[in-house]
Amino acid sequence: MPATLTLQKPILHLIQKSLSVSEFDLQILRLTNQQDALVFMGDCVFDLASLDRSINQLDNLTIYVIDSDISARSLNETLSEQINIIDFDKFVSLTVDVDKVITW
Fold first, then answer.
1. DSSP characters over 13-76
2. Secondary structure letter of residue 81 according to DSSP
3. One CATH from 3.40.1260.10, 3.30.390.60, 3.30.559.30, 1.20.1510.10 for 11-103
4. Closest by alpha carbon to 39, among 18, 62, 71?
5. Is 102 exposed, middle or buried (0-12, 13-18, 19+ CB in 10 A)?
6. Per residue in 38-70, is it b (16+ CB within 10 Å) or e — as a string?
């Protein structure tokens, strides 16, 4: 009987706590797969500038930030091209489309 290949559904990672660059790099390598997505939320959007170099090396992950989190913190700085700004409706649809949601 041939072995069946089980494809793992993507995981949505909600980043809600501040991480140093080294913590972020380590956690990304340890906890994510290629089809996963990250959403930076709340005050963690402040970390996007310091994590810019690490984020630019993650061409295999989709990275999101919620537009209201950027606006509420008056972050008008240029974000990495890899970061997708989404509204809350898109965030909700992301949570429905994945198998698992992990909060950091």
1. EEE-S---HHHHHHHHHHH--TT-EEEE-GGGGGGGTTTHHHHHT-TTSEEEEEHHHHHHTT--
2. T
3. 3.40.1260.10
4. 62
5. middle
6. bbbbeebbebbeebbeebeebeebbbbbbeebb
Model confidence pLDDT, tens digit, residues 41-95:
998 888 887 787 777 777 778 889 999 999 888 876 667 778 899 999 999 999 9
- Predicted TM-score (pTM) of the model is 0.83
Tokens (6 digits) for 15? 């980043």
CA 4/CA 67 separation, integer angstroms? 41
Could you identify the residue written with the tokens 């909060």?
A: 103
Largest CA distance in the chain: 59
